[in-house]
Amino acid sequence: MPVVHAKAGTLPMPEDLENIPALVSAYFTEFPNPAVSAQRVSFGTSGHRGSSLLYTFNEEHIYAITQAVCDYRKANGIDGPLFLGGDTHALSEAAFRSALEVLVANDVQVCIAPSGMYTATPAISHAILNWNTNRTSGLADGIVITPSHNPPRDGGFKYNPPHGGPADTHVTDQIEKSANTYLEKGNRGVQMTHLRSALSSSLVNEYDFIRAYVDDLPKVLDMKAIADSKLRIGVDPLGGASLQMWEPIAETYGIDITVVNKAVDPTFRFVPFDKDGKIRMDCSSPYAMSGLLQMRNHFDLAVACDPDSDRHGIVTSLELMNPNHFLSVAAWYLFRTRATWPVDAGIGKTLVTSALLDRVGQDIKRQVVEVPVGFKWFVPYLLNGRCGLGCEESAGASFLCFDGTPWSTDKDGPLMCLLAAEMMAVEQSSPTELYEKLTQRLGNPVYQRLDAPADDQVRGKLKALTPEDVALTSLGGSPVTEIITKAPANDAPIGGVKVSSADGWFAVRPSGTEPICKVYTESFKGEDHLSAIQKDAIEFMERLLKP
């Protein structure tokens, strides 16, 4: 079993908090060395991430990446507005300013939130899609400055092309290569202007991301049913960008929403330590969510989002729902209630998301579209309607509007939180109760992820695997039914391997954002069987990594 830190679930003391002045100062005064691989620009599954104190997220990085984005826009004829936003991490504000200096110097029209407002990732995706609807030229794109739920010392930068979702690998490879070339040249060739000039430029315009998002919600959710139900909903934004969204939602639709924490503080001192003793704003972690869990009896439903609001946490009167559990119920509910969705729309899931979704698909006679890890893989399927729902086990999901058009092509935390309220209003049962009924019919899985250190050698061996390299005929005592190193939906490499039987599965892949190897395991036969699957997975890894 994974070791849980002694401080997990407790609030940090003053001495535990990040030194924000030192963090921000390092952003502007420290310089990365492009000769050191760890200090170069690197786009993982969720963009470039790092920390100024480690020389991995400094102003020079943001200048180089933003210029590379401008070059990509010019090369691909993207000449509409760029929607620029960031979350509440300390480095997000600094990087926002640096990016704006470069964008304006490159004559890019930029749309930003009014001063003092933060921008949720899904609101940027929704804005891009709205702008580009029925357009063939002057297309918009976006930049989201966020490290998602990462600790306070981290920063992140993500590019969303005109399709509205995270850029796919062939785009990020170009941006990464170009940005590193700029770094190697000391950022010669990067165009920039002073921030004051940028903010006063006619190229920069305010855009009300929140109003545009809130007003469109009836296109994707039954807001009237939520309001009529009189549900008492508690919300913890975890100090993130969704804070400024919830009161407009409550006022516009007459919903009883109480925001239980209105603090924004870049130390995130109000977030309990996660399982590893780090402050991590992970709304799917029972440790980070322990504060909201203690309040669950004050509300009919309590929900939370991470700092950039692309993830959801669902708290019923009984529990913080495991993301796999909620997503399985969400798929079952959505395909029963969205009668106007395309008849061939399927359930999109990453290959490490619960196999209960496969059983739901069989039950409701809908195809399951299984893709590699990373929400970017769902973008084409949400755009063309082949997926009604796209979801991943790390509590990220989005789904189509009632008319079958895409709502967002990036993960949307508030959307999924409000879906939980709609489910309660319509079904007269909590998502936990609905999940229990679902598993009584389809099986009750046990799921766990294990982490292990991973260096470049481990990554290389996993990436080079083929199904023929995996000498496994049984898994937890059951015959192996499938071994894959490419995703079934699009034949894209998964960076590792997944081994399945009729009763469970395991998958091994390196993280795209951390120096770890992730081992995902699931069993439909209980804890003992899960342990047997984990034993087989660990033995497989030991054989693989032998010199």
What's the number of helices?
Answer: 17
Helix content: 25-40%
| Low-confidence regions | none
Biggest β-sheet description: 7 strands, mixed
What's the total count of β strands? 21
Give the percentage of residues in beta strands. Answer: 15-25%
Report strand order across the widest sheet: 1-2-6-5-3-4-7
Give your account of this protein's structure:
With 547 residues, the protein is α/β, with parallel strands linked by helices. It has three domains: 31-208, Alpha-D-Glucose-1,6-Bisphosphate, Chain A, domain 3, CATH 3.40.120; 216-442, Alpha-D-Glucose-1,6-Bisphosphate, Chain A, domain 3; 447-544, TATA-Binding Protein (2-Layer Sandwich). It has helices at residues 20-29, 59-75, 90-105, 121-132, 169-184, 195-199, 209-215, 223-229, 243-253, 290-294, 323-337, 356-364, 379-384, 413-427, 431-442, 456-464, 527-544; strands spanning 43-44, 47-51, 82-86, 110-112, 141-145, 154-160, 204-206, 232-236, 256-259, 301-305, 312-315, 346-350, 368-371, 387-392, 396-399, 446-453, 474-475, 478-486, 493-501, 504-510, 516-523. The strands form four sheets. It has a seven-stranded mixed sheet with strand order 1-2-6-5-3-4-7, with helices on both faces. It has a six-stranded antiparallel sheet with strand order 16-21-20-19-18-17, with helices on one face. Strands 9-8-10-11 form a four-stranded mixed sheet, with helices on one face. Helix 2 (59-75) packs across helix 3, helix 2 packs across helix 5 and helix 11 packs across helix 15. It is globular. The model has no long low-confidence stretch (mean pLDDT 96).
